[in-house]
Amino acid sequence: MNNTYTGFWKATGTIDYTFTNNFMFQMILNKNNLVLKGLISSLLHLPPEEINSVIIENPIELAKEIDQKDFILDIRIKLNNHTTINLEMQVLNEYNWPDRSLSYLCRTFDQLCSGQDYSLTRPVIHIGILDFTLFPQSPEFYATYKLLNIKNHEVYNDKFILSVLSLKQIKLATEDDKAWQIDAWSKLFAAKTWRDIKMIAENNEILTSAAESLYQYNSDWLVRERCRAREDYERHEQYMREKFAQNEATIKEQAAALKEQEAALINKDAVIEQQRKLLEEQEAIINAFKGKN
């Protein structure tokens, strides 16, 4: 373990940039292979001794200025030089996660070169760590999805897997989740104070290493600048979504009001037409009466 950055044991107060900051999350996993291996071991229910290597294939470059529009959200990992894992921290609910994650997974799965046999396709796994509940009607802490037969539940293909971890549903962690310490990782990611971090990381070498990295990079000016830029971008995106939703609601209200006005005008025209016909009938009766006299 790297003991250079142990200041987090004395740190107090709130954490400026937590694991849910996408840049911070990527920075720690890019630079701390012990933490990356530990997290993958837990999420995949894979004993540490079965992990020979975890290599990030799209590493971030700290010195490179990041255009937020082109910011890479997922961490693409090659496990044991065989399985590809897309790992992603997502804070904002853009209400498109099922389609988005499936799109990422399909692109990763389509990995063969022209002429290669389909049997050479390697397993791909997309793991989304979400700071929101994906399906509020059926909340779950850690869910894994595969292609399977809807009648007998026979798995169609074991090479195509989607997993979703909700930081908002830690209370729903199963005994299996706890046995693999997935709940501990989630508490670490969701923690907002150094006090919570210390309670979670205590007596756990890998979580302590993750906490050390978090403290180290919260003290690094350049990393903080990248984290701040990422938060500013996400705040702007959230603001634009809220404005769009407000404008959409206003347009719907205006459209409804317009329909009501149109309906009122139609009703008014109908009343006028009815009164006109009644007047004509009355005039006809008067004229007929005058004709008789």
Description:
This protein folds into two domains: 7-219, no CATH class; 221-293. By secondary structure, it is an alpha/beta fold. The longest helix has 72 residues, at 221-292. The relative contact order is 0.15. The N and C termini lie far apart (119 Å). It has helices spanning 22-31, 33-43, 97-109, 175-179, 182-190, 194-201, 205-218, 221-292, and strands at residues 54-56, 74-79, 83-90, 124-130, 142-148, 155-166. α1 (22-31) packs antiparallel against α8 (221-292) and α6 packs antiparallel against α7 (205-218). It is elongated, with a radius of gyration of 30 Å.
Give me some keywords for this one.
single chain; 293 residues; alpha/beta; 2 domains; 6-stranded mixed β-sheet; 8 helices; 6 strands; 48% helix; elongated
